[in-house]
Amino acid sequence: QVQLVESGGGLVQPGGSLRLSCAASGFTFGYYAMQWYRQAPGKERELVAHIRSIGGSTNYADSVKGRFTISRDNAKNMVYLQMNSLKPEDTAVYYCHARNSNYWGQGTQVTVSS
Question: How many other β-carbons are positioned within 10 Å of the β-carbon of residue 76?
C-alpha cells in the first residue's frame, strides 16, 4: 500500500538546523512532484516547499526562502527538507505529500525553542 513516512523532526534551538526525510513506497514516486507542508497549532496547513518530478526545479514559501532546501532522490524514493536558521515560528508538524494525490505522511514534529 501507499506509504509516506517522515522522520528527522525534533527539538532544536533558534538558529539551528534539522533535516527531514520522507520515505515513499507503494506508488510510482518518480511520476509525482513532491511537497512539504506544515501545520502549526491553531493554524491552517501551509505549503512550505515543492519539487518537480523531473528536472528538480523547486519553489518555496516566502517565509522559508533562503533557509530551507527541498531535494529528492528518485533512485531511493526519498524526499528531503534541509532546514537552516530555524526560528520559533517554524514550529509545526511537517508533512510529506505527493502533489495531485491523496498521499500524505503521518507528520513529524519540529519544535524550535530555547
Answer: 11
